[in-house]
């Protein structure tokens, strides 16, 4: 299988072929280069943090795992007998999920998905980042109405990254002309593969609640972590 510009998929495939030390380089406009250990994408439920286990427990009905990656959450749900479909844009990741026995896998962009209805949309590992920016979040919240059954829910993880702009004296330094501080620009690299620059959204829960309610969703904070990360439930408000 030949892949181009698919660093995540290529790294996942290398890991499955035996390279247990594969790492993806992550560049951003906020911090120095970081790395993702590909092994982390294959974690078992025993290795998952409390937030993720809670999210899996809150899934109901027909589930769409958005940005499923190597499929660890879909595998856990499938083991529990949940009707789950794993979705990712990475061809290499999709192939890996099928190799691991995930029965329902889609190679698709969530914004282009149509004709399907789910009871739960699951977006872990800051999955709401796919919105890119606040304008994209509005697009996402409108589009997901076409994907949710009556009474459906979105379970999403994100983080408030305001702490990254704190000075030593505790004050916060923001460029008010640069847009919302949670709109981060990334590039991911693995061997000859790279994504090119793309926006990824981190959104604080108060602003998310404002956007969710303005688009007809209820908002519930299910979990708050020590590092500013949280799990939220958005549900379509009943008419």
TrEMBL record:
Residues 64-119 form the Methyltransferase type domain. Keywords: Methyltransferase, Transferase. InterPro entries: Methyltransf_11 (IPR013216), SAM-dependent_MTases_sf (IPR029063). The keyword Methyltransferase applies. GO terms for biological process: methylation. GO terms for molecular function: S-adenosylmethionine-dependent methyltransferase activity. It comes from the Bacteria. It holds the Pfam family Methyltransf_11. This is Methyltransferase domain-containing protein. It comes from Pontibacter indicus.
